[in-house]
# Entry
Amino acid sequence: MGVDGSNGWQQTLECIDMAFPDKHATAARVREACVSSGFFYLVNHGVDAELLDDVFAQSKKFFSLPLEEKEKVIHDKNHRGYTPFEEEILDPETQSKGDSKEGYYVGVHIPESDPRSKKPLHGPNQYPSPDVVPGFQETMDHYHSELTKLSKRVSRLIALALNLEETYFEKPGITDDPMAALRLLHYSEEKSNIELGIYGTGAHSDYGLITLLATDEVPGLQICRDKDAVPQVWEEVPPMKGAYIVNLGDMLERWSNGLFRSTLHRVISQGVERYSLPFFFEPNYDCLVECLPTCCSKDNPPKYPPMTSGEHLLSKYQQTHKGFDSKKKLGHQELEAHRNQTTFDST
Ligand SMILES: O=C(O)CCC(=O)C(=O)O
Ligand SMILES: [Fe+2]
# Structure
């Protein structure tokens, strides 16, 4: 194993060109990628390069503020706002301390007056004061809306790749009220050390439908195609300027009965600062995720029990973030009642 923790070899990931005119040919390549690694690059995606540069610039500005300023927008009960260094620990069994990164969540802005704001993880966004980071809110809201549109376009390719109708994931109840979250990430200069359990981001798979990740040009992301291999083989995913790195979340793995992979990944920091922007596109809170009829049969029964998107996200956030407690929002009984309602609604 190399000093950086990689195993020194690498297979190139698929690079999907969104401008390619034959969508069925593109979907076939997406299928290959989803089955073999659960990761692919995305180019010609239509997101304005200047907008992306602005988001990185605003993110740098925010993270360079003094801690006391950042703590004014510390993450709230809906998981919006600032998460300090080491607050998150994605792989507690392997890590000796939290991830060497700080973050900032921007979700779908739902005003308190909207009844949906009563649901866990739903509510207004937090933003730093415009006097402190001018233009932050406008830039982030614009980028969030562009990435929501792009995620829907990618979900169409994924639907075709699963032999479903193109708009399957856009049907009412699935992603028409998505829990889409943009996260700004800043990794410190702390060099990762596998022996000591110090990681930029501990090994994990993402939780939802898809993640669209933009990174700066500093390497560090690694994937492990087979989490059960002994020893695990980690491959680097080099940064590609202007491209997104798309990866699949747990919910897609469950929908597809394990055919499409939600692959383990981590960040090994090289001793230099790094900035990245994952955009997590998650189904509606109440969406029931269960094996698609086209992905199971008598010989291939469903491998996972059904669950709702909201339940999965809440349990993951509780496992990985020190300060997260969604029960602050709903009383336990209300949460139970809400769950029962959810299950009833979506069957
Ligand atoms: O920073 C990166 O490159 C990856 C971050 C990541 O995997 C995540 O936030 O889920
Ligand atoms: Fe991730």
